[in-house]
Amino acid sequence: MSKIIPFAQLARAQHLNFLEDKRREYQERQDYLARLSRLLFQIEGQLRQTEVQQLDVFLQAAKHFQLNLNLPIQGDRLAMQQAFTENPFLAGLSDFFTGRLTAEECLEKIDLVKEKQEK
Q: Is the dihedral of CA 22, 23, 28, 30 positive or negative?
């Protein structure tokens, strides 16, 4: 004859299986999050490196045109955004790089900035 398993034992086994399943689900998500975090860290590093290279283009242009260009501390995104909207040299160069100004128009803006700096 077969042995009868008490209900409490069946319920306990069901609870244990439930807990094991949830631990497995949690661990899979945790591993996925860890992989995504590493990927995000790598992408953020590449993003920062590219931003620095982009700023270097502006610094090279300022040096070429012999303009004093004081940029905010890197990482201060708000101050950097303000600098690009308030500084006519940076705004003009940005407009040129994005195709909103021709080279001739950009040079005219740079000449105006140079005149203001010389005064």
A: positive
pLDDT in single tens digits along all 119 residues of the chain: 578 888 899 999 999 999 999 999 999 999 999 999 999 999 999 999 999 999 999 999 999 999 999 888 877 889 999 999 999 999 999 999 999 999 999 999 999 999 988 87
| Amino acid making up residue 106 | C
Q: Cα(107)–Cα(117) distance, rounded to whole angstroms?
A: 15
| Entry pTM | 0.71
Q: Tell me which residue of 61, 52, 53 sits closest to 95, measured CA to CA.
A: 61
Listed by start position, the domains of the chain span 7-118
